[in-house]
Each structure stands twice: as structure tokens, then as C-alpha cells.
Amino acid sequence: MSEYFKNINKIKFEGRNSTEPLAFKYYDPDQLIGGKTMKEHLKFALSWWHTMGGDGTDMFGVGTADKTWGESDPAARSKAKVDAAFEIMDKLSIDYFCFHDRDLSPEYGSLAETNEKLDEITDYIAEKQNETGKKCLWGTAKCFDHPRYMHGAGTSPSADVFAFTAAQIKKAIEATVKLGGNGYVFWGGREGYETLLNTDMGLELDNMARLMHMAVEYGRSIGFKGDFYIEPKPKEPTKHQYDFDTATVLGFLRKYGLEKDFKMNIEANHATLAQHAFQHELRVARVNGVFGSIDANQGDPLLGWDTDQFPTNIYDAALCMYEVLKAGGFTNGGLNFDAKARRGSFTPEDIFLSYIAGMDTFALGLRIAQKMIDDGRIDQFIADRYSSWTTGIGRDIIDGKAGFAELEKYALAKGEVSSSLSSGRQEMLESYVNNIMFSI
Ligand code: XUL
Ligand code: CO
User: Fold this and answer.
1) Closest protein CA for atom 3 of ligand 1
2) How far apart are CA 337 and CA 334, in angstroms?
3) Helix, strand, coil: what percent of the chain each, to 5?
4) For residues 158 and 254, what is the distance between their CA atoms, to the nearest angstrom?
5) Catalytic residue numbers?
6) What is the pTM of this model?
7) 17 alpha carbon to ligand 2 midpoint, in Å?
């Protein structure tokens, strides 16, 4: 096995005063934060598609980075990708990876041959996992790039395409189980529409649910005990994606009785596209008991598309980790860097530099989030703000002891209630966060 990054050594933690670009300043895997190590909290994952396959190709130009891994034959390249991926994970101390079936092995002449070749690669990955202890965070099927999926996959008007999709997902779940993954993601790449003039929305949504029920039934039958995830995204590539945001997906899951088996895989840049804060999406998932996993990246608020940048915004990372800690941490999920170095950051070193930037950002975010909780001022403020619900009429409402008649009687007796309100203190709370963040 050749070494792909000969000039890069294992990345070490050197601390905040280090000026070495190829070193962690904040990510110290074994550092204890609130009783768990950073490594256990953060569960970083490498995204096979961006890191091993993404070469910077965009609508305006060809790739700028060489991701051939020195091989022109597709099968040899798939294998070289595995070696390179494990080298990257080792050097960056990343314990997990995420994949689409076609990132691991491309399509060949027939589905049977494609599946056979995928098996060869997953055998090879399983061997490397045994040697290294690296784990699969989640797998998924790339049911969006081939022309057959031009009108959707699970929501295609063609039953033949639906059948092909089911076959592809069946195999991708098998691959995920074989690699020990505890997550299987549905990102509905082309599950949406361009115009309602040609779309039977009701049938398309029913069919998507049928596909998901089949996936659950099959996954459970072959021993998949982990979580299925839906990754919400409002638009791109279609004008309207069905899995618009967490709240929309929740409605879908509940309508079709899928909420027991599915959680959310929340991506920061998809939240931005839905005009939500990243923290909002995480909060909606958390309070509804469907928080699962995270695609850690960031978008550019000035651009209306999915830029998938490595996350460097500490404020967002801190508020994200605050939600994760409040949710009790990850169980089957983790932080997958669904992120790519900019097209102009095209050298092999940029792979490492961009992961270091993202990992350090989340390490800092974790420390700040834990400090926000330990500090207690924000929690105390919220508890005080809602204290009228712990006794008296508030308690009676919650306990179901007061209905409209009792509340009318209470309100009539009480008179004007504006004096029961106190300031929301937004600016004070924001300054608490700054105070905590900059005294870390
Ligand atoms: C696309 C996206 C996907 C999913 C996996 O916007 O986020 O890469 O994470 O299919
Ligand atoms: Co994603």
C-alpha cells in the first residue's frame, strides 16, 4: 500500500499558541469536557464524496484538484481511494466515515456487475476497518446523479425507476450493515419538483413513504439496529425539495407512521437555504425527539446555494454543540464534514488544512457550549422566564385542571396582566454568550 501524503505527518494537538498550520490548536481528542472526551463528544466523520471524489468541478469549469489517486482504471481507483481515505483518517485522528454507494464504487455495465464490484470494495474496507478500528457513521445511496433519476427516484413518475431505486437502496443498506454503520441516510437529491404542472404530488409523497417503509422493513430484517435519517434540504437541485426542513419532514414522518425509525440528519448549509439558523433546525429536532446526526459545514449567507464550506464560524458551532449537549449528545450520530475545500484550495495539503479548521472550530464550539451550560446564567434566565408555569394557574393548565371556563374566570378576576411580563433581555443574553466565548 502506497502512502499518498508523504509530506504530511500525523496531525498533533499543539495548543492555541501554536503557529504550525498542520497542527490542532483546539482539538485535543482525549481532553475531558463535562465528563466525556472531545473525541467521544464530537464523533468526527470524513465524507467520502467530497474528500475522496470531489475535484472542484463546478458548472463553470473542470476540476482543479487531482482526485484520481494515481489510477485511471475505475476498480483500481476505488481501491486506491480506500487506502487514501484510511491514511487521511489516521493522520487526522478521524474515527468515522460516511459514504454514498457510488462514492465507493461507480456504476458498471449492469446492476449485477455494479453490485459485485461494490461488494469487492466493501470487503476491502471491512478488512481495513478490522486493522485500524475506523468505523462507518452512515451510508446512503446516490439516487440522484444518473440520468435515470432525472424526474426523481422514490418520487419518479416511472414505476421502473422506483423499482431500480429500491434495488439500489437495498444494496446500500446491505453495504452499510456490512461496514457496521449505525445510520442510513435519505437525502432526497431529486425528490421534489420543477413545476406542479407535470406533478402528482400526492402520489409522489405516498411513494416516497412506501420506499422508506420498505427500507425499514428490509434493514431490520438483516439486523440493522441503527437510525434511519432524513436530511432536510429546501431546494437545489430541484426548485422545491419535499424534505424542505425539519418541521416539514416531521409532518411527513408522522403522517406515514415512520417517526419511530427515522431521525434527522441536519446540515448547517441546508438550514441556511431554508432561511433558518442552524441552531433552529437542531432545536426543532431536539424538542421533537428526532435529533440524530449532523452534516457539519457552513454556507455563505450572501449566496443562495449550497457552498458546503468547512465550518469556521465559532458562534454557529458553539450554538450547535449547545443543542447537541442539551440533547444528551450523539447516540448513533456524529459530525460528518459534508464540506469541501474551495476550488482554489486545490492541493493535497488543503484537505488536511480544511479538516483541521473544521475540527478545531467544533472543538472550540464544544468547549464554549459546555461552558454556557456550566455557567448556568442562560438556563437560569429561561427557568425564571417561564416560572409562571410551575405554580398556580400555569401549573393547573399543564395538569389539565383549567379549561376555557376556569381561565375566563381567572382572567376576569385578575384584570389587566401586562404587569406580569418582564424584559426578554436579548442583548444581555447575547453579551453573556460573548463573555463566555471570549474568556474560554
Ligand atoms: C447534498 C448533501 C448530500 C447528503 C448525502 O446537499 O448534503 O451530500 O449529505 O447524500
Ligand atoms: Co449533507
Assistant:
1) 187
2) 10
3) 50, 10, 40
4) 26
5) 100, 103
6) 0.98
7) 33
